[in-house]
Structures are given as C-alpha cells and as structure tokens.
Amino acid sequence: MTTGAEPQKFLGRVEFKRGLEGAITNETRIGYIDGEKGWLVYRGHNIEDLAEHSTFEETSYLIVYGRLPTRAELARWTDRLVPARPIPGYLIDVLRKLPKEAHPMSALRTAVSILGCHDPLADRADIANCERIGVDLIAKMATITGAVMRIRNGEEPIPPDPKLSHAANFLYMCTGKAPDVLSARVMDANLVLHVDHGMNASTFTAMVIASSLSDLYSAICGGIGSLKGPIHGGANEEVMKMLLEVGAPDKAEAWVRTAIQEKRKIPGFGHRVYKAYDPRAKVLGKFSQRITKLYGQERLYQTAKTIEELVVPALGGKGIFPNVDFYSGTIYYSMGFDYAMYTPIFMVGRIPGQVARVMEYLPDNRIFRPRAVYVGDLNVTYVPIEQRG
Description:
With 389 residues, the chain is an all-alpha fold. The chain has two domains: 53-229 and 347-364, Citrate Synthase, domain 1 (Orthogonal Bundle), CATH 1.10.580; 235-335, CATH 1.10.230.10. It has 16 helices and three strands. It has a three-stranded antiparallel β-sheet. Helix 9 (201-211) crosses helix 16 and helix 13 (279-294) packs antiparallel against helix 14. It is globular and about 70 Å long.
C-alpha cells in the first residue's frame, strides 16, 4: 500500500495512452511499418515486391531465418514443411465433436491446444524447441483450417497433397479441387501479405505469453484468440456484410453519403498505424479485380471500388484510406469461403510472423510487466459482513 511518505508513482493522474499506443517493447529485425508513408517491410524487403515475386514458403523462411533462401535452402525448408502438413486422426476426431455453431477460430485455438497436449517436449523453453514446434504449426495451420471448413460444411477433411504448393494445397484441402493458376497465385500473395505486421495485438499476445517461458502452443493459442476479435482479424467479415448490403455500384453514393453524415465507421477504412494507403490493400485491390471476374463476382469489386472512390476524397485528408480488410473479403467470398472462415485464412498467413517474433524475443527474454495507473480508493475501513447494508 502506498503511504503519504512514499512517492505517488502510478497513483492518480498520470499521462498515458490506452492500448499501449506508442509504447516500445523491444528491438526487432523482422518487420517495419511506416504509417505515414504507407510502407510495410519484411526483413528489409518491400511487401509489394514480395507479394509480386515471392511465395509463402519463401517468405516464411525469410521471416523465421532472416534472409531469403537459396534454391537448396528453399528445397530443404519445403522438405520440412510438406511432411509436417498432415494432422493426426485424434485431432480430426476432436474437431468433429465440436459444436457446429462454434466459431472456426475457436476450433483452431482448440486444435493447437490439443497438439500441445500430445507433445511430450512442449514445455522445453529453448530456441531449438521453439523452432521445431513453430515449423510444425506453420505447416499444419492450413491443414487444420481446411479440416475445420470441411467439417462445418458436413464434408470429410481432405489430406494434404504433397505435390502442391502451400497455397494451392490449402485451397485444395478446403474445396476438394486442385485450384486454377490464378486462384493459387492470389491465395499465395494473400498469405504473404498477412505474414507479419509489426506489434499487432495477436502477435503481441503471443509474445506476452511466451515471455513467461510458457510453451509455444499456449502462445499461439493466445495469438489466435486475439486475432479472432472483430476489430482485429475479424474486420474483413464486416466489409463483406457492407458490400452485400450496398448491393451494387449505383447504390454506393447514397450509402456512403449517409454513412459519412451519420459519422458511422465505414468497414475496411482507416488503420491504427497507417495514415496513408495500406500497401497490402493496393496489392489485394488489383487481385480482387481479377479474381472477382474469374468467379463471376465483378459487381463485388465494382461496388468496393466505387465506395473507395467516394470515401477517399471525403476522408483521405484525415488519413482514412482502405486497409487490408477492404478487398480481402471480396477475394475470399468469390472463392466460396463463408464469412466465418475469413479470419482463419488470416491466421494461416500470420503464423510465421508470430513464431518468428517469439523466437526473436526469447534469447534476451524478460517477462512483460506493464503498470496501470491506480485511480481507486485508499485506506478503506474493513466492515464486517454482518454490518454491511
């Protein structure tokens, strides 16, 4: 208890920003965001270059190990990921027993927890063990997500195809069909765009859990739980609901005008960090145009583009531009994914970043222990229960 003779630290009125905004937790070489310029960089590489030229396998290697792989290194990395893709039968049995109404992100969280329970070495808190588990989870997250989707649809899970790339195999496990070249390419770029994004809430959650030297499975479960939130990974669901509500490009102007007049938040616009156009949205906007045309959903893209052309002149001066969620939902919807699967797809892409940042922090680990400003009462007299009104 603080007394009058002690300094009044963290007591009463202290200047701070909610959500740890602007707080620095550590140094990193993994990723960098410049919100004013609209930059996103992985290990020094511009995200737009990686989305155009790289693959999920190559980018995940870059994030985890610090540099782009040689051909031989990429082959060895792929040879580790591909055999790790299958998930055990006991896990599929658990997924089948979950309530049909359970959110797919809850199913993912449960699946990772089950894998941890069956790993006798899970609690070894060292880099080598963290890397072992991390590689396994990077490979399996797509398989778990595919199984969750199939079971939700009353279908049998499909085993991974070792001949397909990570992105193409993911689509195959979800749909039961080997994807066309464009769909596989778009999903690959989409996963690359989601690999890392600074100290976002879900990655920070994973790091906080791991900082207590808890196991990586627990850390990733926490990351999944945080990403599930509607103002984090779940935001792209709200964009699709908006686009379907608007219905067509010629109805967009009236809808946007009303939303701005009523000062409603427009889903898919604005970002905590970016005050310029989100570079991920630039890439996904181009892919949305192509993929919606391929699947006969051009009206979705046209509606989204019309909304963008109305909102940016009105709100761009306030730093409100399309973010990553604005076009990603149009891609998922066109490919046949229902809303609830959008955030699990996000997690399939984000798992390498979470693993890499936990591994980076571990060598000089210090448990996270922020403080709160106490604004409650002091020296309250205890009243026996029989005397309380």
